[in-house]
Amino acid sequence: MKRFFLATAAAAALMAATPGLAVAQDTASQGVQVAPLGFQLRTLPNGLQVWSRPDSSTADVTVQVWYRVGSKDDPEDRSGFAHLFEHIMFKSTRNLPEETFDRLTEDVGGFNNASTWDDFTNYYEVVPANHLERMLFAEAERMGSLVVNQESFDSERAVVQEELRQRILASPYGRLFGLYMPREIWREHPYRRAGIGSLENLQAATIDDVRRFHETYYRPDNAVLIVTGDFDQGQLDAWVDQYFGAITNPAQPIPANDVAEPATAAPREATYYAPNVPLPAVVVAWQTVPYGHADRAALTVLDGILSTGESSRMYRSMVYDTQIAAQASSTPDFAQQGGSLAAYSLMTGDHTVEEGEAAILAQIARLRDEPVTAAELQEAQTELVAGLLRQRESVDDQAFALGYALIMTGDAATADNEVAAIQAVTAADVMRVARQYLTPERRIVVRYLNEDQQPDGVPAEPTAAQTGAPVTLADLATDVEIVELAPEDQRIALPQPGPERAVETPQVVERRLANGMRVLVAETDGLPLISARLSFQAGTSDDPVGRAGLASMTAGLLTQGAAGRSAPEIATDIERLGAAVGASAGADFTSVYANSPSDTFDQTFALMTQLVRSPDFAQEELDRARDQALDGIRVSMSQPGPVASAVAARAVYGDAPYGAPGGGTVDSLPAITREDVAMFHAGAWRPETATLVFSGDIDPDTAFRMAEEAFGGWVPSATGVAMSDNPAGVAVAPRVIVIDLPGSGQAAVYAAARAVDRADPNYYPLLVGNAVMGGGYSARLNREIRIERGLSYGAGSGLSARQDDGILTAQAQTRNDAAAEVVSLILAEVTRLSAEQATADELAPRRATLVGGYARSLETVDGLGGAVANLANNGLPISEMADYADRVRGVSAADIQRVAAAELDPALFSIVVVGDAAQFIDQLRAAHPNVEVIPLTELDLDSAALR
Q: What is the pTM of this model?
C-alpha cells in the first residue's frame, strides 16, 4: 500500500517563489571529437562483405545482415512484397524448423528483428557472445536455403495485412504519412508506393513470386554482414568462411533499378479524406537530395533549425506563439536515389489547413531570405551531435550506423564523418540549400481532412498507388530450387554455444543529504554521456478528485518557465547544451530527468535544478499546455488502442485514483488552476521524499558535490498536500465493455485484472508468468493469435506493478470481424496460466528473455539510472539490481501456477473491445450476454460508469 502522507498547505505559502540557481550562459563546446567506429572489412570470394569489430566491453554480440533490396524493388503490382518477404525470412530453412530464430535469440536472453526500407532490408540479432557461432549458422541458412511453403506464406501474408490495418487504417494519420504523402512527393520513382503495400497487392502475391524474389535478391554479392561485440577475430573469420563461403550467387543478374525522378516543374497540391481524423493536417514538401549528396548535412541542420525542439522556428511560431497548431514539425528523408523534406502541422480548434500551409511557407521563406543566427546554428548542431552520441550507446546501434552508411553510400567513412559534417555547416550553407531546394515552384502540398468534409461525388482514394515499376515479375529469377525442411535425422546440427560469460552490474554508491534527499551514483565507462534523474513520491494517483491530469500538468510545465526565464529561453538552453531535460508523472512517482554530453553536464544539471526549485507556473503557460493536452487527447481518443487502455483502467479500478486517466480528460483539464499546480508542486515535491540518481560518465565524489551544491540548502516546507493512501481502492466487479468506434480500421481487444504490488513476494513469479503468457514473440498469446492464426500483427501482455495493487493486461489488435474470436483466445490463455504448469521448454526461454532484456537496459545511461530509481522509489534494496537474474531464474513452474491461481482468477478479468461494433457485437454478445455498448461520443472517462 502507498503510505506517504502530507498535510494540506496554505495556498499563499506555496505560491512564494523559491530562489533560483544561476544557469551558466556561456557557449556550449564545439568541435566534439567522436572516435571512428573502427570496423574492418573482409570480402569473401562470393562477394559477401564482412565488417567486424571486437569489443570486450560488452558480454553480447550483434549479428546483422543487410540486403540491398527494399520496397523500391517491389515488382509491379506487388507493392509490399519486400516487406512480406522480410516476414517469411523468419520461417524455416533446410536445417532449421519454423521459429528457430526466436529459440536462438529470445530464448537465450537476446532479441531479433528486421526492417524493410525503401532501399534495403536488414536482419539483426543481439545475443550473449557465446551464441555467436549459432547465429552465423542460422543467418547463412536463411540466405542460402530458405523454405517457402504455402502454410508459412499464407500465415505471414495475413499477419502483414493486420499490420497494414493497424499502422495505416486504424491510425488517424496512418494514411497521410504512409500512403498519401509519398504518393504526392514522387510521381515516377517507386518510392511513391507504400512500403507496407496494399491489401489488394498482398492478396495478389503467389508463392512462386516469393520464391523467385528470394532467388533474385538474397545472395552473397547483394549482402553485407556486420558483427560486433565480444569475440575473437580469428575465430569469427573461420566461422564466416565455414558457413557463408560455400553459398553461391545465381547466374541471373540483379535487375537494374535506378529511376530518374523528373524534377518538380510546378507546384502541385492534393486533398485527401479519411475516417476518424480528429484534427485537420497539412503537409508541405519538396524533393531534395539523396543520402550521399554533399548537401545532406546542410539540409539536416536546416531541418534542426526549422523544427527540432521547442526553440525551433515552427514550434515557436505555430505551436507556442500563435497556437494555430497542435503539432508542427518537419522530417527530412534521404534515401539512396532521392530525398525530400516535408513540413507538416496538425491544426487546432477552428484553424484551417490553409492557415497551416501559410505559416509553414512563411518559415521556409525566412530560411531562404535571411541568414540563420549563430545561436540557432550552434543549437541545431549541438543537438544533432548529442543525438548521434546517444545513437551509439550499444553495439547494435553502432552496427546499424555502419550498415546504413554502407547501403546508402557504399562508404563506411560516411558514418565516421557524420559529426564533422554537421559541425562544418555554416549559416551560408543553410541559406544556400533553402534557396536551391525549397522553392515555390518545387512545392508539394497535401491536405488531409475528416471524411465528413468530403464533397459529394468525390470518390474515396485507393490505398494502392497505381504506378508502373522498373522491376516486373518477368525480371525475377526463373531457375529456382524449391527447398524443403530436411527430415530431422538428416539435418545439420546447430553448433553448441560456447562458455557463458558472467554479466556484472555497475556498482551503486549512496549518500543522503541533511534534508533527507537520497543520492545514488552508478558510474560507467563508455561514451561521454551523463544522466540525472530526480524522483518524488507523488504521481497521477495523487491527483485530487475532478483534477485528473494535475500531476502530469505540473511536470509538463516545469520546462515552460522558471526563475523568470521563459519557455523559449529554457528550450534554447536545452538545445544549446545538446541535452534532454524534462519531467513526467507516473502512477506513483514524478521524475525529472537530464541527459547530456559530459562536457555540458554541469550547465545541464544547473538548469534542471533551477526548473525543480523555481518554476514560474505562469497562467499563460498553463493555458497553452492545457490546450495542447486537450488536442493530444482528441488524437489519442480516435485510436482503438489508447481508448481501450484508458477504459481498461477504469474497469479494473473503478473510481479509485489508479482508474483515472493520468493525462487528464476533456473535462478535468479545464478545471485545473494555477493555484492547484503551485500547491501540488510545493506540497508534494519535497526533498525528504526525493531520490536523485546519477549514471554514466561521472564519479561519485563529483556527483555528491553537485547534489549538495544544488539541493543541500533546500529546506522542506512545514506543510504539504494530501496524498492518496489507497490508490487502487477496493476491488470492483469485472465488466465486458464495447466502445463503438464506427469506421475504425481495426478493433483493440484488452483483458485486464488487478495484480500484486511491486514489493509483494509474488512479484517475481507473476513477472515470469506474464512472460510465459505474453512476454515476447514466442510467448503463448502471440503464438496463438499471430503465429498460428494470423489474426494480429502482435499480441502480448504486460504487468504494471505499482506501490498498491498493480494491473495485468493482455491485448491485441485485430480486424473487426475477428474481435470476438480474439477475446476468446486471450481468456483461454489467462485460464491456462493457472490451469496447467508451464513446461521446461517454455519456462527457460522466458526467464532468459527477462534476464537478457534487463541486462541490456543497464547498458544505456538512462536505462541504468531508471533501474536504480525504480528500486529506490519502491523502497527496495539496490542490491536487487544485481540479484535480478537469480530471482528470475529461481521462479519455478509450480510457483507460476500457484501465484496465477491466487492472483489471476479468469472470472475477475474485465474485457474491453474498441472498434466498429457492428462487425463483431453479435458474436461477442453470444459469448458475453452482459456486454455494455458505449458509443465513443458518449464515453466519459471521469466516471467509473464510463458514461
A: 0.88
